[in-house]
Design goal:
By secondary structure, this protein is of the alpha/beta class. The protein has 26 helices and 32 strands. Strands 3-2-1-4-5-6 form a 6-stranded parallel beta sheet. It has a 4-stranded mixed beta sheet with strand order 30-31-10-32. The two termini are 26 Å apart. Bound molecules: shikimate-3-phosphate.
Length: 753
């Protein structure tokens, strides 16, 4: 235990469940000071002594308070004032030597009591609230684990004595709780919604049902739903009466919001309005998963998909083979766009082959939060009930897009054209990535956007701006920026024209045209006019060539390999990897070529053939931008030097991919030279001899770095261990399963975080 809790004598006033559990928790961690209690019920004191929770106690505060170094007020909220008055009478005038804290569920009323009794909130009084409890009451129910992993909110006043605050923090930390601070008003507002309202509803529901004639039947047959919803109606009535008196205004405000929501739902049920019901239930169901993950500290998509989370490490056996037929998941870029355009279209869009990865799911969830009813995904099928160009609703909080740069940048364009304010935020990696590249041209169009320092997320987008079309020369080859501007252009007056320095993926243009929104192109420039509309239609998402790449490279470097990848998107703006591998000498053939929903697809067969190093043609760089981590592994297995230049964009992807790959290659012992916009890699290709060694590599949370080094193991002399692989789930949730199927030996450690 914590020497940190150095109280010589702790006095708990009110020895019920909360006070008793505090004593029990301190005992369990070996607190060596004295614990005393004061309670009007002498039998509770006796029980506390019998249970070994307290050393002594009594019913008179005047006898217990003197000599205490800390006093915890664990009495009902409405009893607080009289207890404070008694304390004021017995404690020395300055109260400087005794720290006082409380556990009340509302804070403004208790602060008011303190002001009335002491004339002000004494600096040694630190108000607090452990967010833990049980429907049980009394010291007999004391539980030493009650606070473990629960939150305790402290609401110190600005002039609090810092030593008192440290001591109260230490007290709660010793019980295993996480201690937070907020101000009194925020505490009461938050608790009204998260605790007081649900208790009010549970009391009311049980009471209403209990008064109906068939009550016995209702209770006898009441199953899970009733039980889950009403457990808290068994809580202490007096305590809750006090809370509702004390936090009246905040509770009434939250009840008003609830009643408004309930009457909308009532209307939907009455009218049999399936879209409205689905929209509410979908949003709620996903929000519930999201809450769960917040409680468990995981990402909600990971929670939702039951995927690896937390610290995930891949341990990859050296060698193995690369054989088989595979279908990799749906294209990430097209999956994002299918949800975005489907949501804004008029009518219902059915999507097949949707990527159920965390990135595209983040986009899906964000639209749910803006009121769009979306069914699925279920085995790649999603049904989107479009709301039309102006049908989105203001989200109730920031839109969280996880690891996805595409989602954030495309959303920025869409949201700039909405009537409401919005905020876009992401995970730690995304929050470091540059967003000035979209914010700057959007501002030229008239959008009002705030970013954090250096143009980083979060993005705060002010609604209601009147956008005007612009003629914009992209400073970098970026499909995300192009798409962002085209999306904003749909809401702008006049034409929005974007000129690209090199061709980039054109999925946005193709899909807009497919949804009946004309986008034109002449050479390097594409444009559209604002004010159009989208008409829903079916979308068949091809397999992602960027995911297929890991298996193309696996086969390209492994003697004897033969892999066929089915139904892969081979849009001309995405096939840099095919062109580059072919130039390096790979044996690739395309078959079953077809067009699905405006996108060309093919089966790609690749058989091993020795690779040679090349100078990567500059025009292929934007067409293979996501494929370089894997291509660097191909280069490490090619005879001679492979040179890449003009690829500075790689430095601002999910990681600095030039440096992250160079660091990993160095660990494997692959000779290379890094330059600002590229790298030279000196490869080896002697069949039967490993091309490099093994080692432990940090993927820096970048999915493509993790997958590239997994494939590298096929030609390694020793095991490759790759840390921080959980984000593989952003783009390729079943990567390990497919890698294993073709003959790689991957062991996943720490899946369940
Ligand atoms: C994407 C565009 C590319 C790519 C990203 C997806 C898209 O980014 O790297 O994975 O879907 O538009 P940039 O536009 O930043 O090059």
């Amino acid at each position: 235990m914590p020497n940190r809790v150095s109280e010589s004598r702790l006095l708990i006033v009110g020895l019920g469940l909360i006070g008793g559990s505090l004593a029990a928790a301190l005992r369990e961690v070996g607190f060596d000071g004295k614990i005393a209690a004061c309670d009007p019920d002498a039998s509770e004191i006796e029980r506390g002594i019998d249970m070994g929770l307290i050393d002594s106690g009594g019913t008179a505060l005047s006898q217990q308070a003197p000599g205490a170094s800390m006093i915890v007020l664990a009495v009902p909220v409405l009893a607080m004032e009289s207890v404070m008055r008694e304390l004021a009478d017995v404690l020395p005038e300055d109260m400087a030597h005794v720290v006082i804290t409380d556990v009340g569920s509302t804070k403004a009323t208790i602060r008011d009591c303190a002001r009335r009794v002491f004339g002000r909130v004494p600096p040694t009084l630190v108000l607090g609230h452990p967010i833990a409890g049980s429907e049980k009451s009394g010291v007999a129910a004391a539980n030493p684990k009650l606070y473990v992993n629960h939150k305790v909110i402290l609401t110190p006043e600005p002039d609090v004595d810092p030593d008192a605050l440290t001591r109260v923090r230490a007290l709660w930390q010793a019980t295993g709780a996480e201690v937070l601070e907020m101000d009194v008003a925020q505490h009461d507002h938050v608790l009204a919604r998260t605790s007081h309202l649900p208790h009010l509803l549970a009391f009311s529901l049980v009471d209403t049902l209990a008064r109906q004639d068939q009550r016995l039947d209702i209770f006898r047959y009441a199953a899970g739903g009733f039980r889950d919803f009403t457990r808290i109606a068994g809580s202490d009535p007096v305590m809750w009466r006090d809370i509702f008196i004390a936090n009246r205004d905040a509770v009434l405000a939250s009840l008003d919001d609830f009643e408004a929501g309930l009457s909308k739902l009532r209307a939907a049920v009455e009218a049999g309005n399936s879209d409205a019901m689905l929209a509410t239930f979908d949003r709620a169901s996903h929000a519930r998963h999201y809450f769960e993950s917040l409680l468990n500290d995981t990402s909600y998509q990971a929670e939702y998909l039951m995927q690896p989370q937390g610290q995930v490490t891949y341990r990859v056996r050296p060698g193995g083979q690369a054989q088989g037929r595979l279908r990799v998941p749906g294209d990430k870029s097209i999956s994002h766009r299918s949800i975005m355009l489907g949501a804004l279209a008029e009518g219902v869009s059915e999507v097949k082959g949707f990527l159920e990865g965390e990135d595209s799911l983040a986009t899906l969830q964000a639209f749910r939060e803006m009121g769009v009813a979306i069914e699925g995904p279920h085995q790649g099928r999603v049904t989107i009930h479009g709301v039309g160009m102006h049908g989105l609703k203001a989200p109730s909080g920031p839109l969280y897009v996880g690891n996805s740069g595409t989602a954030m940048r495309l959303f920025a364009g869409l949201l700039a054209g909405q009537a409401f304010d919005s905020e876009l935020t992401g995970d730690a990696s995304l929050n470091k990535r540059p967003m000035g590249r979209v914010a700057d041209p959007l501002r030229l169009m008239g959008a009002v956007i705030d970013t954090a320092e250096g143009g980083r997320p979060p993005l705060n987008i002010h609604g209601g701006a009147a956008l005007k079309g612009i003629d914009y020369d992209l400073p970098m080859a970026s499909a995300q920026v192009k798409s962002c501007l085209l999306f904003a252009g749909m809401y702008a007056e006049g034409e929005t024209r974007v000129r690209e320095p090199a061709p980039t993926r054109d999925h946005t243009e193709r899909m807009l045209n497919g949804f009946g929104y004309p986008v034109q192109r002449d050479g390097d420039t594409c444009w559209l006019a604002g004010g159009g509309k989208l008409t829903a239609g079916p979308i068949d998402v091809p397999s992602d060539i960027s995911s297929a790449t890991f298996f193309l490279v696996a086969a390209a470097i492994t003697p004897g390999a033969d892999i066929t990848l089915e139904h892969v998107g081979i849009n001309p703006t995405r096939i840099g990897v095919i062109n580059i591998l072919t130039l390096m000498g790979a044996d690739l053939t395309l078959s079953s070529q077809a067009e699905v929903g405006g996108e060309p697809v093919a089966d790609i067969r690749i058989r091993y053939a020795p690779l040679k190093g090349i100078d990567i043609p500059a025009d292929q760089v934007p067409l293979a931008i996501d494929e370089f981590p894997a291509l660097f592994i191909a280069a490490a297995n090619a005879e001679g030097t492979t040179r890449l230049r003009g690829a500075e964009e790689l430095r601002v992807k999910e990681s600095d991919r030039i440096q992250a790959m160079a660091d990993g290659l160095a660990i494997l012992g692959v000779e290379h030279t890094v330059v600002e916009d590229g790298i030279d890699i000196v490869g080896n290709n002697r069949e039967n001899v490993p091309s490099y060694g093994g080692g432990r590599i940090d993927s820096l949370g970048d999915h493509r770095i993790a997958m590239a080094f997994t494939v590298a193991a096929l030609r390694a002399g020793n095991e490759i261990v790759i840390d921080d692989c959980a984000n593989v789930g952003t783009s390729f949730p079943n990567f390990v399963e497919l890698a294993t199927r073709i003959g790689l030996g991957v062991k996943v450690e720490g899946e369940n975080g």
